[in-house]
Write a structure and sequence with these properties.
- With 153 residues, the chain is α/β, with parallel strands linked by helices.
- The protein has one domain: Phosphoglycerate mutase-like (Rossmann fold, 3-Layer(aba) Sandwich), CATH 3.40.50.1240.
- Helix content is 29%, strand content 25%.
- The protein has four helices and six strands; from the N terminus they run βαβαβαβαββ.
- Strands 3-2-4-1-5-6 form a six-stranded mixed sheet.
- Helix 2 links the parallel strand 2 and strand 3.
- Helix 3 crosses helix 4.
- The longest helix is centred in the N-terminal third of the chain and has 17 residues.
- It is globular, with a radius of gyration of 15 Å.
């Protein structure tokens, strides 16, 4: 299985007047999403599922990819690392699952996969962390295949 974590691109700052769920991408965020989407188009396997949190900014990030996606309520703003892994079916799902979501859940998921315990790791806005699960020597290994920051697309 492959699990691709994509943090939503840069969004408007919280202003107290706009509900957090309704915050939209900034112009810079739209550019970030398009750059990363272009990279993902070149690298995503054909067998893939795209799961997106219900917030406006995650859906806008997903729209840049121009692929079908499912809105998954458990990937909302308050999601946990365990929610991310459960929704994705890690590590037993076949193919690739792209999850578009939020901090701190994505950073905590990355820490859990690489370090074996949740920790508050930072994933930059618009960045992708790509993991794979494989069997080696009778055990399962988590492999970090790629990390992509939108500034390097």
């Amino acid at each position: 299985m492959e699990l691709i974590l994509w943090r939503h691109a840069e969004a408007e700052e919280a202003d107290g007047a706009t509900p957090d769920q309704k915050r939209r991408l900034t112009a810079r965020g739209e550019k970030q999403a398009k750059l990363v989407a272009r990279w993902l188009h070149r690298h995503l396997p054909r067998k893939r599922t795209v799961l997106v949190g219900p917030a406006e900014r995650t859906q806008q990030t997903a729209n840049a990819l121009e692929l079908a996606y499912e809105i998954e309520p458990r990937l909302g703003i308050g999601a946990t690392a365990r929610d991310v892994l459960a929704v994705a079916g890690w590590p037993d799902q076949s193919g690739a699952v792209l999850v578009i979501g939020h901090q701190p859940a994505l950073g905590r998921t990355a820490a859990l996969l690489l370090g074996g315990a949740e920790a508050d790791w930072s994933i930059k806005k618009g960045a992708v962390w790509w993991f794979a699960s494989r069997e080696r020597e009778g055990g399962r290994q988590n492999v970090l295949r790629a990390v992509l920051n939108p500034d390097f697309c």
